Amino acid sequence: MSAPEDTKSLIPTVREVQQMFAELLSHGDDITWDLLSSNQAEILRKKVEDFEDPEEKKTNLSYLIYNPKFFDSIWKQRKFTNGQSLSALFFVMVVDNVSDPKLAEQSRSWSIHPVFRCRRCVDDNTGRNCSSEDCCMVYISQYEAFEDWNTFVKYTRLPKGYMVTPYRGIYKLIDGQVELEAHYIWERNKSIYATGKDRCITPDSLAAAPKCPSHTPIIDPKNTFSLIRSFMVREWKFCSCDRILYLLLSQRDGEKSSDASELSDSLLLFTHTINNRRLALEMIKEQKYHNILGHELKMVYNQISEEAKRIEGKVDLIRSANEVPSKKELDIMFRTKTKLKGLLIDRVRKEEINLEDYGSAFQKHILNNESFDNLMYSMCENLEPEMLMLILKLTQTFVENTREELWQLLKYHFSTETILYQIILCIFKRHSDLNIKDIEEQSSDILRRVRYYFAQSCPNSPPDLLTKCTKCVGYYHISKN
């Protein structure tokens, strides 16, 4: 944890680190969650993998095939949220060189530990409110899971020292300053019932991150032992969480990441979006990593918050995942699914499409311009103009006629580009010949199927199934999903 005296001035204090996290991960007094439907497990898996220790992977064969226990502990909490996952990442910082909790926040000798909180209870059983304020939440570290905050604080097996954390794992800014509290952790046996391996982030690991070269997997597919051999000869890249945190926390000017792909991948920790290349390129170009990322996240939560104000009752802010893949992946998908490959067809350029023709709601609910533009460019390059216009019209119809109804029912935000993507997937699956006449005739069925896709990802249990919690003001239901 400690650092040489001559470099300590460059290391941010515990409060400065937690201030940065709060500015990125909070939205006023709101409680925020990231939603994953039951078929989006890989997004959470990618987030969790960012905290794996590369040294363990190289030296311990049992870790060469992905250790799922940390992931599984988070994923199985879907039983409290109707089979969908509602979680939020926060960070606990441990200081072991002070004897006074008031000094812990100013320490420059610390370790960072990722913890996920998962929604367990909601404070109302009528279905009107979907808020977890003052309710039990499940807290999952790399060691264990606890179903309420007090038990987590009292029995956590995080390292010995003062644990500095936002209260209940919820980042809040009070007059612009992060609200923190400190609890002392006594040394405990970590070897019993551990749910994952010890992976902490320290000033030393952050300082080493930009100096460690990245590596790509080396796979040998030639024989029946290729899987084991590939793991045995694999060179692992340095943890991407260390790289992104170094860039966000560095107090020196001119710190630069030259690898846009790697930065894009690591941004998933904060954005809940699988494709962040444009954001990564902007961060590298401007070298203002914290400001640009903070602006992006604030824009997203502001839009979700504005919609939440229209709901009668109080709701948490829920951010759904953006699964729209990269431009390259989209092009492969289109060319594989369409029969237009190699044919000379009239195409329309994206710049020739006037989005005002598709209504104000269509434009208003575009949340990620990169994902939307990727979809538009891929459609323009691979579809006939009539098909492209039909898909946009179907998206407009859904946004104007169905989206509001679903928002009131589900109480979470989903964007124009997500709707557009799901309509494309439905057409490719159900109408692979891309017959425009058939698609027009079946447009109601397509919109019905897309509506069902979103409706089945509702994280809220039916009110009549909720049971009063004995530990808090809320109610919960354990589903069989």
What would the keywords be for this entry?
21 helices; 11% strand; globular; single chain; two-stranded antiparallel ribbon; alpha+beta; 481 residues; 12 strands; eight-stranded mixed beta sheet
Provide a quick synopsis of the model.
With 481 residues, the chain is α+β, with helices and mostly antiparallel strands. The protein has helices at 14-25, 41-49, 54-59, 69-75, 101-104, 149-155, 203-208, 226-232, 240-249, 260-266, 268-271, 277-286, 289-308, 327-337, 360-364, 369-382, 385-401, 403-410, 416-430, 436-441, 443-455, and strands at 32-36, 85-95, 111-119, 137-140, 145-146, 161-165, 173-174, 177-178, 181-185, 317-320, 467-468, 475-476. The protein is built from 21 helices and twelve strands.
Overall description:
This protein has two domains: 5-302, no CATH class; 326-441, no CATH class. The chain is an alpha+beta fold and 481 residues long. The radius of gyration is 24 Å and the shape is globular. α1 packs across α13, α10 (260-266) crosses α12 and α17 (385-401) packs across α19 (416-430). Strands 1, 2, 3, 4, 5, 6, 9 and 10 form an eight-stranded mixed beta sheet that branches. A two-stranded antiparallel sheet has the order 7-8. Helices cover 41% and strands 11% of the residues. It contains 21 helices and twelve strands.
